[in-house]
From TrEMBL:
Pfam families the UniProt entry points to: DUF6268
InterPro entries registered for this protein in UniProt: DUF6268
Protein name: DUF6268 domain-containing protein
Domain DUF6268: 178-327
Segment forming the signal sequence: 1-22
Keywords: Signal
Amino acid sequence: MNQVRFLRLGALLLLGLGRAAAQDIPVYPPPAPLDTAGAGRSDAQTFANSQVVGMGPSKGLIVKYERIPGNFSLKSTAVGGGSDYNTQVSKNANLVIKAYAPLLNHPHLKLILGLNYDRQEFQFSTPATTDQYGLYSNIENKGLSVIGAQLAVIRPVDAVHWYLFRTKTELNGDYNSDELSVSDYLKVTSEFIYGWKRSPTFAWGLGVQLGYNLGRQSIYPVLVYNRSFNPRWGVEALFPARVLVRRNLSSNSLLFAGYEVASNNYNLKLRTPFAAPNNPKVTSLELRQIDLKFRLRYEHELLSFLWTGIEAGYRYNYQFNAFDRTNSTRDRLINSQLGGTPYASLDLFIVPPRKLLQKAERSRK
């Protein structure tokens, strides 16, 4: 069993446990439309960034709802003794809201402010019967929330070189409005990427992220690789966290296929303390969730400023484990795993209107 878990962990490390989101940050102005002749654009923007022709428009406001069909398994085992807890998850839903706005949009320096709100909800078919599994009662009654703000600095150095720095603060946990304490739920991540724009159709970069993707705050590598091979096909990758193959169906329709490794780290305050091998009174837990998603996504323009995205795929959960936050050693107390299951999501996002983009394009000429 340990060998199997080790191999699974190795596979996930190869695929990537990062939650870096450099490609989610819009770049103003957005990339030009793809040249249908396949020869690129002679009037390509002067200063480099990570986007290439053929990519979709920059997203300003995103509202996304994801639903995982109910009745998949949850299996939990207490570390160091104690009873097991097995049940079915009757509901697992996610609401995500993101907003991005340019604070500064100079040719040599761009500052992007981002805000996000995520809420994940669970319902279980069998109530937890022991104090150590009281975390599931917390999750079911309150949900798991994330409120965050970020600042991205995009620095186009010249026509070839660019770099990006981003810092993000989030409040992650099972809190509600009348009991929110910043110090109890605060998480901070940062990343730096340096890149090269080799042509209007090819940009790549290397960097590092300081984050919580394996539980403790650690440093992870990042590789950005965006390339349009021809007017129809391209790749958008933030390796090892995410790799997508892109198909340009038309000027206003895109199809993507690939994978994403998504991780969440939540702080939980228990209503009923319980005893653990190294702590007689556990009052706070850290819940670490790591999912591997195989994705098929379709994006389509509804209006000049409004797009929709429809996504479906399969989610494999690597872990849903709980660690002792009241103990400095961060002992693992509960091993859990959610059953694999299909999922689907629908989102709407606002993009810069075409007239505004055309005006910006004329002003750069």
